[in-house]
Amino acid sequence: MSNKLFTFHKIVAGCEEGSREAWEAFLADYTPIVFQLSDVYFGFSPQKQNDFWRDALVQLSTSNFETLKRFEHQAEREFLTDLRDFLLEQGAEKLDPALDSTETPRPTPEAVLGLLKGLPLLDQEVLFFKLCGYSDATIEKILVTTPAVAQKWLERLRAEYSPLLAGSDDRCVWPAAWAVVLRTARKAKTEGCPPLRHFVRIHEGGFQWHEKEPAEEHVTGCLHCLSRWTALREIWHWRKQAKPRPADEIDALLSALPLRTETKARKTLFKRMFG
Ligand SMILES: [Zn+2]
What is the pTM of this model? Predict the structure, then answer.
């Protein structure tokens, strides 16, 4: 783990200097996650996914990597959560509400809060992932427990959202409406919301009992925090599942970035950092 964190910090530091090697490593690690998210949340075709990521990389790197530098750098999970938020914001602009499914009522933040109200945390997590568009099989892997152990969520969905129960693909059925729910959740931060780091510690098992219970109780009553709590689990699942992308795809993405011309001395320095 410490090795991985070490590598993550070096990679991001190198990216902010425009190093080609660092960006190669960044794109190799994170492109599979970005494609996975854009598949689930936007339903983009492979070509559109590629164009979307390329545009996002341009955004991340303008003004001397200003946006990238704003992301949390403390730990990889927090960094990836910021990257995910950024991507969901970017993608939301490209969604057409006319393409949303009309099989069920379109979700609104109020409707989602109503569905979640009073449920235990595990049920809320399952239900939230279901609304995101995840299949039972993927939810089982993300939560490392079968959704069947949490049953109350099922009754809530059955009334109006039964088409979601049968889905075997990981694909949101109303990307535009769900993007509004997620954006509302992102903006609903209150003074009582624990820092993301607190959730990371709980997920990694490095918490004190007196920290865990109040935090979990807060999450069950706060859409902003449930959204971040589940995002942390989701992003880490896809991080672990990531499969390498073809080298020519990574090369094409690199061409979108303002990379530094590598001098021999700088190259050596970077190799020392990695070595
Ligand atoms: Zn909160």
Answer: 0.90
